[in-house]
Amino acid sequence: MNTSKKLVAVIAMFSFLIIGNLAYAQSTTTTANGTVLEPISLSSTALNFGSQIFPGTDKSIAKTNAAAAQFDISGEPSKSVNTSFTLPSSMQADTSSATMPISFSTTDAGYAAASTSQSSQTAFDPSVAQSLTLDGTTGELYIWLGGTISPTSTQKKGSYTADITLDVSYPSN
Amino acid sequence: MTDKRILVTVFLLLMPSVIQAQSLAVTNLSQLSFGEEIFPGSSKSISRTEAASASFEVSGEAGREVHITFELPQELITQDSEVMDISFSTTNGGYHSLQTEQANATAFDPANGLITTLDSDGSLYLWLGGTIYPARNQAGGYYSADITANVSYTTN
Fold first, then answer.
1. Hey, which of A15, A27, A105, A118 has its CA 20 to 30 A from B66?
2. To which H or E segment does residue A11 belong?
């Protein structure tokens, strides 16, 4: 064997050694994965007692009335959501410190799978948290809320407002 | 000794190194799966002892010390490039010489890696958990990211 052939042979041998050393390090790849449900979206309209409230006379808005508050909810079809209201006990005058009582009966809230079903909604107590199911096809849910205001006979004239909060969430992971 | 004899001898001396090197392997057995019902706005954790954790099998030379490192993602991503945070705690890694002992796996920090010894049959099993943090308005869909496990012999 001449010198150049010997050199090639030795290089070939060391190549085995190098390949061998590289092969000591091994690796494999997997994934972390998961599927997130559609996030909940929520919009609402006000519970509107109108512009003619007479002192000393209670005024009620039924949940089936067009003036009832409406909450439009959407999310992952067929999934259940937890709902809870934070309800006011009085309304505040916009331009003074006067207040006006507001109350909600055990049937003042209702829900349905379609916005067109307000008249046939299922009643529930708005002071009690609920677990409701989003529509299996659209992922939608509609909630309506009525209530009663009780202006005193000396109720100060003016516009009154109060916040009504509806929390909607999926169950925890 | 002739040149040919020298070369054959060198070759035979080198072959065990090659064969020995090929005996080290790491195989993925399962993915780290957070499931198909991840609720936006609520973090979700998979521990190293759960069936949904990622698992790996290392096989090599009995009694040899190995160094294990992980390449961990910080985010999972959708095909639409939506991202979701993921993290790994200091106890999210686990190892044991027996595959049936996941519940009793010894914890380690997957970010720091692990140096341990293969058992008498050359086996080692690894598990990896983690936590994801979907935002309240997290876009719905399938999220994923690669996790790579690297294994090598130490010089010990």
1. A15
2. helix A3-22
Q: Count Cα neighbours of B47 within 13 Å in the Cβ-side half-sphere.
A: 9
ipTM of the complex: 0.84
Beta bridge partners of B70: B149
Q: What are phi and psi of B102, to 5 degrees?
A: -55, -40
Paired residues of B107 in beta bridges: B94
**CB neighbourhood size of A29 (10 A):** 11
Q: Cβ contacts (< 8 Å) between B17 and chain A: which residues?
A: 16-17, 20-21
Asked if the Cβ–Cβ distance from B40 to A40 is below 8 Å, we say: yes
Length of chain A: 173
The structure tokens listed for B100 are: 């049936």
Q: Are A20 and B21 within 8 A, CB to CB? A: yes
**pLDDT per residue rounded down to tens, chain B (156 residues):** 455 555 444 444 444 444 444 489 999 999 999 999 999 999 999 999 999 999 999 999 999 999 999 999 999 999 999 999 999 999 999 999 999 999 999 999 999 999 999 999 999 999 999 999 999 999 999 999 999 999 999 988
Interface contact flag, B26 A27, Cβ < 8 Å:
yes
Q: Which residues of A touch B129 (CB under 8 A)?
A: none
Q: Between chains, do A30 and B30 touch, taking CB under 8 Å as contact? A: yes
Interface A-B: count of C-beta contacts within 8 A: 161
Q: Which residues of chain B make contact with A29, given a CB cutoff of 8 A?
A: 28, 146-149
Cβ-based burial of A73 (10 A; exposed 0-12, middle 13-18, buried ≥19): buried
Distance CA B58, CA B68 (A): 10
